[in-house]
Structure to design on (588 residues):
């Protein structure tokens, strides 16, 4: 073998690695290095611009002493719990109903899923108008004769977070439906037939057999919706802008306003690290189990 | 089957209930779109007169015209037109680049596996689930250092950087199911790395290319966080401009213009969804690694 062919065969062996290297480099920098960088800023006294003086966990202490952050965390729990429960429940129900040999299934499915194609800014804008107490739904019902009817959640600090839930569920439940429907279509029909011959009723079959078989789909839906919930930012900004007051603040909006509006970059970075840790606690075990099972299969 | 009559009428009642449920939910889901479209076609007086859910008595395109070319975003009263163009200038290169890079990454990670290839994939996969708040500050600094702050090319770079995580996932999962014999046979025939990619792999990947383009288009067009964090003024994408229009607090609130503006921002992704909904769903469920 001549030197040049040896060279070219060695190049051929390295070529795939060379081609993937720039992408890998970008991901390592833009994801992992930047995460470390944010972590670094969170232990400095950075305000308007990063200053690299080590102050320990001062910013975390300050973060957890901020009432606004407490509101944001409490809201995240309320929002996530309701958003997850309603989107999953509604998505599952719609998927099961759609799976009953429905005529026009394609059209109905398209209707349930179209909000997913919209920007959260568009969704927020639309629902802000719908829930406008003066001219929206409340006015319609009032004009119908039920004059005491009140639907002013969006201007009521105690209720405003639920408007975010309503708009979020409208946007994302179709997504849950799509994953559940794919799961239902993957279930072997003979199992259901056999159960029917045994005399099991349809609700029983669903409760005892089909829904347990949807476990992988359920896990996917819950993980992906949690991720959407934690990063929800645009929806809140467009719908309530975090208000009234700070009533609908979420960690994502808190991080943004602390960093870019209130010149508290250190606190902002600390809140970003808290968000990242929450997401990682949910996502990493999920990815790990998904990939491992896949490799085994 | 000789079933009792009551049995079959009970069945029919059940079917009716199922259809009723489905249709009610469908109506509820369509309601916001209906309200947006009808509001955008009404004159402002009619809206303040209390017409919310009904058809417009007078149909006018004034609000659409205002949203497109007159509405004020900040101090500039240019309408959404320049921002729509910004979004196009951002989304086209970002989609093309991220899809192309994702395709070749997926090809390498499945057909040219090297030691550590799975680890590389794992590193990229976590990027799909990154809460972007965790990288906002460093990215803003880096864009500044590169001289890309507040520019469309800067936004393209950001979207490509995080987009390749998703596109690599799409293509890898698709190519994994292509038989290795396909590439092995081409190799025996003397075809090299790029030749196999162009002539053997790409022709089989049209569906996943469509999925990737649609997913990336929707994500990037709809993005707000990067737009609002890394651009300002006239270089903003349309989502940021829309949010500015809606949050104007001076004067009599122009709800019809707000709705027309929201529709203008929504139309490109809605059209893609209507034309290629099947592929859109596949992109969505690809995130659920097993579906």
């Amino acid at each position: 073998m001549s030197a040049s062919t040896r060279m070219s065969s060695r190049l051929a062996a390295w070529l795939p690695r060379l081609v993937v290297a720039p992408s890998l480099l970008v991901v390592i920098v833009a994801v992992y290095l930047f995460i470390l960088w944010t972590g670094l800023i969170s232990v400095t006294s950075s305000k308007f611009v990063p200053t690299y003086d080590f102050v320990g966990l001062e910013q975390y202490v300050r973060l957890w002493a901020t009432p606004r952050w407490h509101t944001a965390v409490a809201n995240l729990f309320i929002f996530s719990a309701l958003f997850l429960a309603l989107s999953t429940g509604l998505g599952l129900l719609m998927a099961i109903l759609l799976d009953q040999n429905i005529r026009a299934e394609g059209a109905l499915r398209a209707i349930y899923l179209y909000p997913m194609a919209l920007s959260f800014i568009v969704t927020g804008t639309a629902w802000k108008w719908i829930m406008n107490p003066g001219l929206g739904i409340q006015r319609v019902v009032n004009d119908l004769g039920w004059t005491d009817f009140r639907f002013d959640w969006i201007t009521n600090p105690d209720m405003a977070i639920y408007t975010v839930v309503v708009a979020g569920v409208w946007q994302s439940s179709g997504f849950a439906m799509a994953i559940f429907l794919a799961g239902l279509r993957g279930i072997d029909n003979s199992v259901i037939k056999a159960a029917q011959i045994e005399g099991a009723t349809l609700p029983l079959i669903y409760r005892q057999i089909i829904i347990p078989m949807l476990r992988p789909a359920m896990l996917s839906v819950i993980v992906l919706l949690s991720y959407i919930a934690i990063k929800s930012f645009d929806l809140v900004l467009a719908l309530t802008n975090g208000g009234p007051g700070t009533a609908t603040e979420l960690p994502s909006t808190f991080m943004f306003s602390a960093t870019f509006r209130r010149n508290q970059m250190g606190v902002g970075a600390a809140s970003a690290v808290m968000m990242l840790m929450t997401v990682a606690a949910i996502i990493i075990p999920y990815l790990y189990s998904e990939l491992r099972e896949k490799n085994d299969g | 089957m000789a079933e009792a009559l009551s049995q079959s009428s009970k069945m029919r009642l059940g079917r009716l209930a199922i259809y009723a449920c489905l249709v009610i939910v469908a109506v509820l889901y369509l309601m916001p779109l209906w309200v947006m479209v009808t509001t955008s076609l009404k004159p402002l007086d009619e809206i303040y007169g209390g017409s919310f859910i009904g058809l417009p008595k007078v149909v006018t395109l004034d609000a659409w015209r205002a949203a497109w070319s007159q509405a004020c975003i900040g101090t500039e009263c240019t309408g959404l037109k320049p921002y729509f163009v910004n979004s196009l200038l951002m989304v086209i290169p970002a989609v093309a680049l991220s899809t192309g890079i994702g395709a070749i990454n997926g090809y390498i990670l499945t057909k040219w596996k090297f030691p550590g290839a799975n680890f590389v994939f794992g590193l990229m996969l976590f990027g799909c689930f990154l809460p972007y708040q965790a990288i906002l500050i460093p990215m803003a600094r880096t864009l500044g250092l590169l001289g890309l702050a507040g520019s469309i090319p800067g936004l393209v770079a950001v979207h490509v950087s995080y987009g390749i995580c998703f596109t690599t996932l799409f293509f890898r999962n698709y190519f994994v199911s292509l038989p290795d014999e396909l590439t092995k046979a081409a190799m025996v025939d003397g075809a090299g790395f790029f030749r196999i990619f162009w002539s053997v792999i790409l022709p089989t990947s049209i569906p996943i290319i469509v999925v990737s383009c649609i997913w990336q288009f929707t994500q990037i067009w709809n993005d707000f966080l990067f737009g609002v964090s890394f651009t300002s003024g006239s270089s903003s994408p349309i989502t940021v401009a829309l949010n500015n229009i809606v949050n104007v607090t001076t004067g009599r609130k122009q709800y019809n213009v707000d709705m027309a503006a929201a529709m203008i921002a929504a139309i490109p992704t809605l059209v893609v969804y209507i034309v290629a909904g099947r592929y859109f769903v596949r992109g969505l469920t690809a995130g659920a690694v097993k579906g």
